[in-house]
Each structure stands twice: as structure tokens, then as C-alpha cells.
Write a structure and sequence with these properties.
- The structure is a single chain.
- With about 750 residues, the protein is an alpha/beta fold.
- Among the domains are: about 5-170, 3-Layer(aba) Sandwich (Rossmann fold); about 540-705, 3-Layer(aba) Sandwich (Rossmann fold), CATH 3.40.50.80.
- The chain has 27 helices and 26 strands.
- Strand 9 and strand 10 (about 275) form a beta hairpin.
- Helix 25 (about 670-685) crosses helix 26.
- The longest helix has 19 residues, at about 560-575.
- It is globular.
- Flavin mononucleotide binds near residues 100, 105 and 106.
- Flavin mononucleotide (FMN) binds near residues 14 and 137.
Length: about 750
């Protein structure tokens, strides 16, 4: 046995908070178990003295196309530049990856990270865990952590705390005995029925409410507290009835947050229209809505809005760059959650607090002067289906034995099927608290456990050459009904908020031809945004002669509209100069590479987005060929990947011989996988390759940024469509690329 290390270091990288939360919980539990160590975000790797620490535990998620999260970019640069091949020779490492099998580069960052540190001399002391968000991260994360402890004690010194760690961890034990409910407990719990779900499912999901801009209108907070009620969740408890013990429960999340009340009269500090504590990597800008249009037509499955925001001054950006929108949680939902948590008066809502505690999650770190209501508007996610750890926590604060058994069952091994069914119902925090009326969690413990409320990212669909102080973007309004038999109407957070803000486009939504509406100046509608740093490389090459293949069905076309507008402007500039530099007679056509566009939609008269723009780009020669995949106009459904297959010989020449860059934007699962397959088959047929070699070639192209993908995981479109057809309810699925709305998390 090798000498044990005196301490461990955990290094995490997280884009939306999961990896951070998991890493910090591992750290707290390790300390409770008597290990000594520290926990850092990867970009602060210098603080970890990695080469000397001995035991390193890496927890990383993925973003983009198998890329590491932004807060590890500096660390990756350090790894890439590391010349000392023995840098990690003294280190024992373990890697936990959080990924999603809806993306083809599943857990790429974790896999690459393990390989990289190994190449730099590290020894892997514990097999890496690769968790899948599509299935539920807990399925891999919990056993991975459970089995880490005995292995870790072989490699890392453990203090004898004088206390039996198992006793100390009793509160976090992973097994519970089922306590028999009393008759009163049973009587107190209303069984689930279609009538006690509280909220009647509307015949048609109407997109508009009278909700005002809650960001700027504080008077709003005293709105009707009973405006919405939660839905009761359906739980099949047959398996529970036969169980006597539940096992495999997640640990209770470590306690950290403390709410310290500030003096009455303390004013909340604002950063423009959002509270100061909301952390953004670049400054928040209060962009003003200058144009709104509905670019899908009547009868389209999804309603698509196109917004133009005035930034107030010329700004440095590129078409395709991502920016974040800081949308609050739905105000009615916030109000209802607060009431349920016994925050009943306006005074209680507006009470200011400092959130204090060791190792607070990033989204609470700056909350030193924040009102109770703003914590629920901007800090925590109250709409995403719960993690098992949240249910476990709620179980601790549930007094009715019957309800408590059910919650514990849902997060136990025995209740796996029921937990999956629960996720399908996509309950909000309010729904869970409605289902378990005797559950009264302290707000501080909820702050510890609820995920971070995230900005939603969109990509810029215009050129700064055409509109230097404006950004445009397009998105589908996320509204859908959960799978049978739950049938609960759900709305995306950000897209619904934007839709409500700009609700005056309602009239246009009912017109056969959508019209561009100029918002009257008196209606100053503010959308707080910030630019993403480390913007992806999903932007135009500076060399205008580089040929490009652009593949983007649905709203995936939006960044390409920006690309095309940019090339169009560049062509106009060169034309106006009468040629190029020292060669005024040169034909500018040679300076602009061919651009081929593959675009897909359902029906020409319903959701052929940006049709006018695209056809004009063809006429002006900006687009060399526009191939349209129309999926619902004939018996045979045609998708973009079918057209790639049809044209594979020409495309082989275009990509391999002419060196065209490939851009794919949109759905990660169906579309991107189909396109990837079609490209691989193209290489097999015309590049004389085996399938494996073709796949490897595509991976190399991705690494070399010749093949760029900007993908988002949509919830199964097939499920939603099946339901749409079954219910004939108006459902509009999904959002836009980058967009992480309730539907996609
Ligand atoms: C925009 C986006 C892109 C993603 N790309 C990938 C990917 O390429 N491969 C993968 O395995 N997971 C991918 N994921 C899934 C995340 O890794 C997973 O949801 C994880 O739980 C997020 O953890 P975090 O909150 O710590 O960032 C992606 C998620 C999003 C939102």
C-alpha cells in the first residue's frame, strides 16, 4: 500500500450548477467522515497545489458539444500548456462526469480530463463515474459517492474524530424503516384524483396573462396570493404498500445557508433592472425591446417570436455569439410558493437578508442584501423536476407518516420507477408541496438544495454591420402538456416571460401573415441581458472565401440568418469599394466562398421561418444553394439529414476537396445525430473508409473546429407530437438553441 496523502482536493467545473452542488456535497461529507481537504472551482486550480496534494477528485459537467464548462477554461489552458509530463506523478485522481446521452459527445469533458491528467503522470485510484442527466444523475452519482469512501480511505489519511462517522451521519443515512401511518395520517391525506389536482387543465393553453413586467414593478408583489395552486402529483404506491424498508436513499444535502435579517429600511441594491446579487460574467445591460414579430403563422405547432433589442450604443459582437437573458421565475408561482412557505405579508416578502454560510453555492455567494421575494424570483429554480436529494430533504420536514413514507419511497431504490414517473410529470416545487401538505421545510434548507435559477442563452441572429447597436434573436414559446396520464400544462420560464412582456404581438399571432410591430416608445420594455464570455467558436470564419455548409432546421436557422446578413453586408462593402484593395477590378465573387444552406420545417405556410430573408439571400448570391426539407407536406417526411444523404457525393467534394466548414445548429438528439450519421456514411462511401474511421474523422473535424455544432437537447419531440395529436390541445414545444428552459432540464 502506498503512503497515504494527508489531504484531498476537489476541483469542480459546472455550467448550470449541478457539478458544483455535487462537489460541495462530496466535500462536506468527506469532512464529516474525518478526511481533510478543500474544494475549488477548476479555474482556481492554483489554490489547490495540485502537484503536492496527493489525492484529487475532479467533478465536471459538459456544455456545447462535449466542451468543458466555462469555469474550467483556465484550468484546461494550464493542462494543454503543461510541459512537465510527470506533473501529476504524485497524484491519485478520481473523475466524476455529468453528461447527457442526448448529446453525442457524452461526458466528453470527463473522459478527456481523465486521459489528460493520466498522460501527465497521474494514477487513477477510482474508476470514473459518468452520470447521465437524461436518466437522472443520481443513478450514477449516488453509488459513485457511496463507493468512494472505502477506496478513499486507502489513499487519504483519515482523522479519528472520536465519533463514529456512521452515527454522525445518521441523519444522512441511506436506509429508512417505513413507519406505519396512523389512521389520522391516512385520513389527512387526500388521495390523488383528477378533481383534486386543483388546477383545471385548460382546453387551450393560452399564452397570454396580464402579468406585468415584474422586474420593474414592485407594486406587483402584493398580487393575489391564491392566483395559482399547485397540481397534486400522481404516485403509484402499490410497491410501497408491500415494502418494510427503503434503501438507496440519497444523502441529506449538507446544511450551509443562513439567512441573517438586515435592518428594516435596508434598500435592495439593483444592477439595472435585476438585483445586485445575480452574478453574471459580464455586465448586465438593460436592453430595450424595439421590435417584436411573430414569425410563425397561424396553425403552426410552435409559436416563434423574433425580438430586436436596442442596446443603446454600438457594441462589439458577432453573429452567432450567445447572450444570456435574466428572466425571473413566474411571479404568480413565486407568490404561491412564498405563501406555502408561510411568507404571507408584503413586509415579510420585502424583508432584506444577507445569505451567509461556508461554501455557499455560486448563485448565493453575492446575496448579501436581498429580499425574500427576490431569492425566489432570481436565485433558485422552482420549476425543474426535483432531484432525489430535494425529496429526501423534504421528507425530513414532513410530519404526516403516510406522506413521509411516500416521499422517502420516491427517492429510494424501491421507488425508482415512481421517481421516473414523477420526473415525467415535471412537478414544480409548489406541486410537491401541494402533494405533501404536512411538509414544512425551512427556507434556508431549500436554499441549500434547490438548483440555481439560470439565465437562458440565445444566439444573435443579426450582423453588427447592419445593426451595430441592436441584437435580434428568435425563439419558440415553450408551452406543452406533460405526458399521459398527467396532462398538466407547463410553460417555459424565459420564453413565457418574454412573451408576456411583449404581449402586444398577440394580435399578430392570429393574423395569417405576421407583421413586424414597432413597440410604442411609451411602452419601454426592458430585457436585462449580458454577453457570454468564452463565446463558442460558432461564429463566421474571418476568411470570407471559406466555403460553408449551414445545417439548421427550425429556430436552428436563427444564427445563420446573422451569418448570411454579415456576409451580405461584407459583399456590399466590397462592391462599394469596387473590388479589393490593390485589385480594384477583381471580381468579388472569388472573395466569397460558396454557402450552402440546409433548412428544415414542417409546412411552408406555417413555419417556414425567415423565408423572405432566405430567398433574398439566394437572389443576391449570398446563398449558393438553399435546400429545404419539408416534413409535413407529403406522405414522405423529409428531414435535413435525408437531404444530406441525397447530396452526399457533391457534399463530399464540397467538404473534403473544397474544405467547406460544417455548421449544425438545433436539436442534439434526432437532428444532430442523424446529420452526423449521414456525414459518416458519406465518408464511408466516397472517402473509402470503414465506419469507425469515418466516425473518428468526424471527431477530428470537431476538435479542429472544421465541424461546429451548437446543440440543445429538446424533450422528446416525438412524445410531444404524439400528445399533440392525441389531445388536439395547443402545445408548442421547445425553445431555441442554447435555451435551457424548463422543458430541457
Ligand atoms: C447547452 C448544453 C450542452 C450540453 N452538451 C453536452 C454534451 O455535449 N455532452 C454531454 O454529455 N452532456 C452535455 N450537456 C449535459 C450537461 O453536462 C448535464 O446536463 C449536466 O448535468 C450539467 O451540469 P452542470 O449544471 O454542472 O453544468 C449539455 C447541457 C447543456 C445545457
Amino acid at each position: 500500500m502506498t503512503e497515504k496523502a494527508p489531504a484531498y482536493a476537489i476541483l469542480w467545473a459546472s455550467q448550470t450548477g449541478n457539478a458544483e452542488w455535487i462537489a460541495k456535497n462530496i466535500h462536506k461529507e468527506a469532512e464529516t467522515r474525518g478526511f481533510k481537504g478543500e474544494c475549488f472551482v477548476m479555474n482556481e486550480y492554483e489554490l489547490a497545489n495540485m502537484d503536492k496534494t496527493g489525492v484529487l477528485i475532479f467533478v465536471t459537467s459538459n456544455t456545447g458539444d462535449g466542451d468543458p464548462p466555462d469555469n474550467s477554461s483556465k484550468f484546461w489552458r494550464f493542462l494543454r500548456r503543461q510541459k512537465d509530463k510527470e506533473y501529476f506523478a504524485r497524484c491519485k485522481v478520481a473523475v466524476l462526469g455529468l453528461g447527457d446521452t442526448n448529446y453525442s459527445n457524452f461526458n466528453n469533458s470527463a473522459i478527456r480530463l481523465e486521459k489528460k491528467v493520466r498522460d501527465l503522470g497521474a494514477t487513477v485510484f477510482y474508476e470514473k463515474g459518468l452520470a447521465d442527466d437524461a436518466e437522472g444523475l443520481e443513478n450514477v452519482v449516488d453509488p459513485w459517492i457511496e463507493n468512494l469512501w472505502p477506496v478513499l480511505s486507502d489513499y487519504c489519511e483519515k482523522k479519528d474524530t472520536g465519533v463514529d462517522p456512521n452515527a454522525k451521519l445518521a441523519a444522512a443515512m441511506s436506509e429508512v424503516k417505513i413507519s406505519p401511518p396512523t389512521d389520522a395520517d391516512i385520513a389527512a391525506q387526500e388521495p390523488y384524483s383528477m378533481t383534486n389536482r386543483r388546477e383545471k387543465l385548460p382546453d387551450v393553453v393560452t399564452p397570454y396573462t396580464t402579468l406585468q413586467n415584474s422586474l420593474v414593478m414592485n407594486e406587483q408583489i402584493n398580487g393575489d396570493a391564491n392566483a395559482i395552486a399547485g397540481h397534486k402529483i400522481h404516485i403509484d404506491t402499490e410497491a410501497l404498500a408491500n415494502a418494510t424498508q427503503l434503501t438507496g436513499l440519497p444523502r441529506i444535502p449538507a446544511a450551509s445557508a443562513k439567512l441573517v435579517a438586515l435592518d428594516k429600511g435596508t434598500e435592495p441594491s439593483q444592477k439595472g433592472s435585476v438585483p445586485q446579487f445575480v452574478y453574471t460574467p459580464t455586465p448586465v445591460m438593460d436592453a430595450v425591446v424595439s421590435k417584436v414579430s411573430c414569425i410563425s403563422r397561424k396553425g403552426a405547432l410552435k409559436r416563434t417570436l423574433h425580438l430586436e433589442l436596442d442596446l443603446g450604443h454600438e457594441t462589439d459582437f458577432q453573429p452567432g455569439d450567445a447572450f444570456g437573458v435574466l428572466a425571473p421565475n413566474d411571479e404568480d408561482l413565486v407568490q404561491a410558493v412564498l405563501r406555502r412557505l408561510d411568507i404571507k405579508t408584503a413586509e415579510q416578502e420585502m424583508q432584506m437578508y444577507a445569505v451567509q454560510g461556508d461554501d455557499l453555492p455560486s448563485h448565493l455567494k453575492h446575496a448579501t442584501c436581498v429580499s425574500m421575494v427576490d431569492l425566489f424570483r432570481y436565485a433558485v429554480d422552482i420549476t425543474t423536476a426535483p432531484r432525489k436529494a430535494l425529496l429526501r430533504l423534504l421528507g425530513e420536514y414532513t410530519t404526516n407518516a403516510q406522506e413521509k413514507n411516500q416521499i422517502m419511497f420516491l427517492c429510494s431504490k424501491q421507488g425508482t420507477a415512481q421517481f421516473n414517473a414523477l420526473r415525467e410529470q415535471q412537478p414544480t416545487l409548489l406541486d410537491i408541496l401541494t402533494t405533501f401538505p404536512s411538509c414544512h421545510p425551512p427556507i434556508e434548507r431549500l436554499l441549500d438544495t434547490l438548483p440555481a435559477h439560470m439565465p437562458r442563452y440565445y444566439s444573435i441572429a443579426n450582423s453588427p454591420l447592419a445593426h451595430p447597436r441592436a441584437i435580434r434573436f428568435a425563439f419558440n414559446i415553450v408551452q406543452y402538456t406533460t405526458a399521459d396520464p398527467y396532462n398538466v400544462a407547463r410553460k417555459g420560464v424565459a420564453t413565457t416571460w418574454l412573451d408576456n412582456l411583449t404581449g402586444m404581438v398577440e394580435a399578430a399571432a392570429h393574423d395569417a401573415e405576421p407583421t413586424l410591430i414597432d413597440i410604442a416608445v411609451k411602452e419601454r420594455i426592458v430585457v436585462p441581458i449580458f454577453f457570454k464570455i468564452n463565446n463558442n467558436s460558432f461564429v463566421l470564419p474571418t476568411d470570407t472565401s471559406k466555403p460553408m455548409l449551414l445545417i439548421g432546421p427550425g429556430t436552428g436557422i436563427a444564427p445563420f440568418i446573422g451569418f448570411l446578413e454579415h456576409r451580405d453586408e461584407q459583399r456590399k462593402i466590397r462592391n462599394s469599394l469596387g473590388g479589393v484593395g490593390a485589385f480594384p477590378d477583381r471580381d468579388i465573387a472569388n472573395d466569397f466562398g460558396e454557402i450552402r444552406v440546409y433548412y428544415g420545417f414542417r409546412e411552408r405556410n406555417k413555419d417556414y421561418l425567415f423565408n423572405t430573408e432566405l430567398e433574398e439571400f439566394v437572389q443576391r448570391g449570398v446563398i449558393s444553394s438553399l435546400e429545404l426539407a419539408v416534413s409535413r407536406e407529403s406522405e414522405k417526411k423529409t428531414y435535413v439529414q435525408d437531404l444530406i444523404r441525397r447530396d452526399k457525393q457533391e457534399l463530399y467534394d464540397f467538404i473534403v476537396n473544397k474544405g467547406a466548414l460544417i455548421y449544425v445548429c438545433g436539436d442534439a438528439k434526432g437532428m444532430a445525430t442523424g446529420v452526423h450519421e449521414a456525414l459518416a456514411d458519406m465518408l464511408v462511401e466516397y472517402g473509402n473508409m470503414e465506419k469507425m474511421e469515418a466516425i473518428r474523422t468526424l471527431t477530428t473535424w470537431i476538435t479542429e473546429k472544421r465541424y461546429l455544432r451548437d446543440l440543445v437537447r429538446y424533450q422528446s419531440l416525438r412524445d410531444l407530437l404524439a400528445q399533440y395529436n392525441a389531445n388536439k390541445t395547443r402545445q408548442i414545444y421547445s425553445g431555441h438553441k442554447h435555451h435551457i428552459d424548463t422543458l430541457t432540464t
